[in-house]
Amino acid sequence: MSTLPLTTADHEEYLRTHTPVLSASSISVTYHVQPPVRAVQNVDLVLNRGEILGLAGESGCGKSTLAYGINRLLKPPATLTSGDVTFHDRDGTDIAVTQLDGDDLRAFRWNKISMVFQGAMNALNPVLSVRAQLHDVFKTHRPNMSKKAKEEASRKLLEIVGVDPERINAFAHELSGGMRQRVMIAMALALNPQVMIMDEPTTALDVVVQREILREIMKLREQLDFAVIFITHDLPLLLEISDRIAIMREGRIVELNTAQSIYENPQHEYAKKLLGSFPALFGDEGAFVRGQSEEVRR
Ligand SMILES: Nc1ncnc2c1ncn2[C@@H]1O[C@H](COP(=O)(O)OP(=O)(O)OP(=O)(O)O)[C@@H](O)[C@H]1O
């Protein structure tokens, strides 16, 4: 049984003026442990072309599990017990993501949807240079690319994410946390995906570096036209950067709305409670938080 998330007329209007890139319906995921954990229950979610969709909710509510389910990255003991995911490609074809397997699934992943994982900055291989790791992405997915083209594309990617291309020779331990995270984002961008899922991509970084990287992501998605599902329990941050926000609780999306509406006119009791737990959002300081949003958007 599906319970529809609360929303407002503004949101309906928003949906009418945007085009979906990814549609997920009735997604349910269970971890088969004792007792079983029904981590995601009958979730419907549409991601529109070029938008940033924030996924908020307290730790353990199922945000990462939903993202893994959508991108077919679940591993035992988790299984997708129900649901369909359809990717609406730029060229007009629809891809039934839940039906893909083997080589088709591997080709789809990273080409169409890429993911920046929680703690990604620690995911670089310590014994390979940045060059080797960037080249590897192309070697796997673009086997016909020449060495020269791989080098050019890798340097260009570093430039795009704000890392000096000369650092292509560096190893992970020679880079700051922010730089390592930028390299991970460069790898996620390498194949020009239409969707990027970012799971707490900046939580481990200090606030100034976080802001810089987020500003970069917002700029990039305008330049490169990809949509983002951005997962965090930092609701004030989502209010700044997202077009829409889905609020999850106990495996379900309880409210789905434009960021503006969630900020000004939250519908669900839990959304109100979440907003209320960030006192700085209200009063003069609250105005400052939204004010920054305009600055970040520029
Ligand atoms: N490998 C696992 N085995 C059993 N249960 C799991 C496993 N991984 C996650 N869970 C459970 O699934 C539920 C959803 O977890 P999930 O990590 O998706 O939440 P989250 O909202 O992303 O949390 P966080 O913000 O802490 O990452 C939680 O109850 C969690 O304990």
Rg value: 19 Å
- Annotated CATH architecture: 3-Layer(aba) Sandwich
Query: What's the average pLDDT?
Result: 88
CATH class: Alpha Beta
Written as H for each helix and E for each strand, in order along the chain, the element string is HEEEHEEHEHHHEHEHEEHHH
Subcellular location: Cell membrane
GO cellular component, one term: plasma membrane
Organism: Flaviflexus ciconiae
Membrane topology: Peripheral membrane protein
Quick overview:
With 298 residues, this protein is α/β, with parallel strands linked by helices.
Describe the protein.
It contains 11 helices and 10 strands. The protein has 298 residues and is of the alpha/beta class. It has a single domain, classed as Rossmann fold (3-Layer(aba) Sandwich). The strands form 2 sheets. Strands 6-7-8-3-9-10 form a 6-stranded mixed sheet, sandwiched between helices. Strands 2-1-4-5 form a 4-stranded antiparallel sheet, with helices on one face. α4 packs across α5 and α8 packs across α11. The longest helix has 18 residues. The chain is globular and about 55 Å long. The C terminus is likely disordered. The structure holds adenosine-5'-triphosphate. Adenosine-5'-triphosphate binds next to β2 and α2. The site of adenosine-5'-triphosphate (ATP) has 14 residues, from β2 and α2.
